[in-house]
Write a structure and sequence with these properties.
Elements: H1 2-21, E1 24-25, E2 41-51, E3 54-68, E4 71-80, E5 86-95, E6 101-110, E7 113-122, E8 125-128, E9 141-143, E10 149-150, H2 154-159, E11 168-174, E12 183-197, E13 200-209, E14 218-223, E15 229-235, E16 241-246
Parallel strand pairs: 1-11, 10-11
Antiparallel strand pairs: 2-3, 2-16, 3-4, 4-5, 5-6, 6-7, 7-8, 8-9, 11-12, 12-13, 13-14, 14-15, 15-16
Length: 248
C-alpha cells in the first residue's frame, strides 16, 4: 500500500510539473497581464558583435513609447556606425492593453537611397498601406490563420507577460515584409540572474527561445521589477555573438 501511495504521489508530481511546463498560448488581441509595466519614455541600446576578444559596434538603437487614448505608439530609430552609416526609423501603432498591432512603417536611408515600407494588420491578414507615399510594400498581402503580434515590438510584448520561474509563452509573430510567414514561437523563463545595468547590478528574469531553429538559443535579461529588457544575446550563423545592451 505504501509503495502504491508513493507511486501515485510521484505520478501526480510529474503530471503537475508537466502541466506547469506547458506553454501558455497568448492570443493577439487579448489583455496582457502586465501591460501596466509598459511606461511612456525613451530607452537606448548599443548593438554590437562579439568575437573572441573583439567587440564591433553596429548601431545605437532608441525606442520611444507613447500612449494616445486607446492606442500605443512605439517609435524606433537605428543609427548605424562604421563604413556604411545608415539610419532606420520604425513607427508602430497598437491597441492599448493588448498590443494588438494596427499599423507599422519602416523608413531606411542608406547609401543615399531612401526606402519606405508600410503595413496594416488585420486579424486574418497583413497588407501594405495603400495610401502611404512611395510605399514599396503596397502590394503585400500575407494571410495569417490566427491574429499575429508585430515581431519588431517583441521586447515590449515580452515585458507585459507574467514572467516567473518556469513560465513559458507561445506567441504568433510576424516580421512585417520579411520572408518568413507568421508562426508560433515559444519563450521560456529559464531562471534568474543579476547582471550589470547602466546604473549597477540588476536582478533579471532570464528568457530563452530558439526562434524555431533547434540547436540555437537567444537569451534575454528582463529586470524583475520593471520587466524592462536589459540585455539580449543571440549567436549568429558565423559564430559571433550579437549583443543588445541597455545604455539608458
Amino acid at each position: 500500500m505504501r509503495a502504491t501511495r508513493l507511486l501515485c504521489a510521484t505520478a501526480l508530481i510529474s503530471l503537475m510539473a508537466a502541466a506547469h511546463a506547458a506553454p501558455q498560448y497568448v492570443a493577439a488581441g487579448t489583455p496582457l497581464p502586465r501591460f501596466h509595466l509598459l511606461k511612456e519614455g525613451s530607452h537606448r541600446y548599443l548593438r554590437y558583435l562579439q568575437a573572441a576578444d573583439s567587440n564591433t559596434p553596429l548601431d545605437i538603437w532608441q525606442r520611444d513609447i507613447r500612449f494616445d487614448g486607446k492606442r500605443v505608439q512605439i517609435r524606433q530609430r537605428w543609427d548605424a556606425t562604421g563604413k556604411a552609416p545608415s539610419v532606420k526609423w520604425l513607427d508602430s501603432s497598437f491597441e492599448a492593453g493588448s498590443l494588438r498591432p494596427l499599423t507599422h512603417t519602416r523608413i531606411t536611408e542608406k547609401d543615399g537611397k531612401k526606402t519606405v515600407e508600410g503595413f496594416a494588420f488585420a486579424p486574418d491578414r497583413i497588407t501594405g498601406l495603400p495610401d502611404l507615399p512611395n510605399n514599396t510594400q503596397k502590394a503585400l498581402s500575407v494571410a495569417s490563420p490566427e491574429p499575429v503580434f508585430n515581431f519588431e515590438a517583441d521586447m515590449e510584448l515580452l515585458q507585459t507577460l507574467p514572467l516567473a520561474d518556469g513560465y513559458e509563452a507561445q506567441l504568433v509573430l510576424y516580421h512585417p515584409g520579411g520572408p518568413a510567414a507568421p508562426a508560433r514561437y515559444t519563450f521560456r523563463v529559464s531562471g534568474s540572474e543579476a547582471i550589470a545595468g547602466p546604473a549597477g547590478p540588476v536582478d533579471c528574469w532570464v528568457v530563452t527561445t530558439d526562434y524555431n531553429q533547434p540547436g540555437t538559443v537567444s537569451k534575454f535579461w528582463f529586470a524583475r521589477t520593471t520587466q524592462l529588457m536589459v540585455r539580449q544575446e543571440s549567436r549568429m550563423p558565423d559564430g559571433r555573438l550579437l549583443i543588445k545592451a541597455l545604455i539608458d
